[in-house]
Design goal:
It is a single chain. By secondary structure, the chain is an alpha+beta fold. Helix content is 21%, strand content 33%. The chain contains nine helices and 22 strands. The strands form four sheets. Strands 1, 2, 3, 4, 5, 6, 9 and 17 form an eight-stranded mixed sheet that branches. A seven-stranded mixed sheet has the order 8-10-11-14-15-7-16. It is globular.
Length: 413
């Protein structure tokens, strides 16, 4: 497949992987990458969904997709293209390379029957023109554990927390993760092999911290939660000044989660707990004695694109009954453009083509932002991104599109 400027887009062949991967590493800063990371990425790569753009025998563009399934409001798990490894050589900017790859990836997702595509954007300004909307956010914090203490949920003292090798309890931790997937929109049902990504531990990326550590929470002999973390010792004028960095945490009930947070707050010689990439409604915020001293910060995380508007809007449920005609603009995937009647409630939904007058007008980018329930249609309308054509429909639809819990993409890809 050719592009507008003489380059050629091809499906990646296994024997080209090392060259392709090296191009991605260079595009993202060229830092050191471990053999462990390279081998894991190769084992997870879906070669029939991975693309390489060539200018003669020079590789100038890369991209690909993973075959995920994403939880949507209501608990359904929907096939989703996880767009990844996107890079264009600095020598080939503005020559149609990125557009050709985005075109192919979305066409392939549609052919595979995936109603959704998702990505993490290294440069958010790039992807709006391809229909991706900012749909999930993440919470970061720097908690002063010398001055902040957590209250503990009832039953916490019944939970045992013990150290374990991350590899030895991998299956138990993955079972906890799998049980959590239907509970929160945005979570990804992982294909076999992806569980190993959580154990990736190259020394070059530790920033002087320890190797990956793990504790598990147990009730009645069953693992009900886990936390993976690193520690970094530090000393100041007044003594110890170490940092715990939380990499991953999952728990099946409040008591198990409380026991894990109690452990993280109490690691010997550590005065700071660094939290990264958590859900914005994470429960620990309601346990701590002083949230201000936790320095919480919210930032954008996952971007979502509706590949098939009808199938995507039919796959989720709605907090309150909705009956609305949407006028959808989608220049990049014109099969989505036009009017759609969405009817649904907490039990199910249907979204079909219609000739009826539109109630709301918006682009597919705004639909992607609102789809998981983390961004309200009212907020988008306040920014001029959604237009109300029939009075009263915006507020009703905005409530219906909401989610009982904040959506969260739990890890990169």
């Amino acid at each position: 497949m050719g592009t507008d400027h003489g380059t050629e887009l091809k499906t990646l062949r296994p024997e080209e992987f090392d060259r392709w991967w090296d191009h991605v590493v260079r595009a993202f800063g060229g830092g050191p990458a471990s053999t462990e990371e390279r081998e894991l990425d190769k084992s997870l790569t879906e070669f029939d969904r991975s693309l390489a753009v060539w200018d003669g025998d020079t590789l100038v563009g890369t991209s690909g997709a993973f075959s995920f399934r994403m939880t949507v409001p209501g608990g359904a798990v929907v096939p989703t293209a996880g767009v990844t490894m996107v890079s264009v050589a600095a020598t080939h900017r503005r020559r149609g390379v990125l557009t050709s790859m985005m075109r192919r990836l979305l066409d392939d997702a549609r052919a595979k029957g995936e109603p959704l595509a998702a990505l993490f954007a290294s440069e958010p300004a790039i992807y709006g023109r391809f229909g991706y909307g900012m749909a999930t956010f993440q919470l970061n914090a720097e908690i002063d554990t010398g001055r902040v203490t957590p209250a503990l949920p009832a039953g916490t003292d019944e939970v045992r927390v013990r150290y374990a090798s991350p590899a030895d309890v991998l299956a138990e931790c993955e079972a906890v993760y799998a049980a959590l997937v239907p509970r929160r929109p945005g979570m990804l049902a992982r294909r076999p092999g992806w569980e190993r990504a959580g154990l990736l531990d190259p020394e070059s990326e530790r920033e002087g911290a320890s190797a990956l550590q793990c504790v598990v929470a147990e009730r009645d002999g069953e693992v009900t939660g886990y936390a993976r973390f690193r520690t970094k010792m530090g000393w100041g004028p007044s003594g110890h000044d170490g940092t715990v960095t939380l990499e991953d945490l999952g728990a099946l009930d409040p008591a198990s989660e409380g026991a894990l947070w109690r452990f993280l707050f109490g690691v010997d010689l550590m005065t700071t707990l660094r939290v990264r990439g958590r859900p914005v409604d994470d429960g620990w915020q309601h346990l701590v004695s002083d949230l201000r001293r936790c320095l919480p910060q919210q930032r954008d995380a996952g971007y979502v694109r509706l590949v098939d508007v009808g199938a995507a809007l039919s796959a989720r449920t709605y907090l309150t009954p909705v009956d609305v005609v949407l006028e959808v603009e989608d220049a990049f995937c014109p099969w989505n453009a036009g009017r759609w009647r969405l009817t649904g409630d907490a039990k199910g939904a249907s979204c079909e083509r219609t000739a009826d007058a539109a109630d709301l007008a918006l682009s597919v980018r705004e639909l992607g932002a609102a789809y998981l329930g983390g961004v309200s249609l009212l907020a988008l309308a306040a920014a001029g991104r959604v237009r109300e054509l029939r009075p009263g429909t915006l507020a009703e639809a905005s409530v219906g599109f909401g989610s009982a819990v904040a959506p969260w993409l739990p890890h990169g890809f």
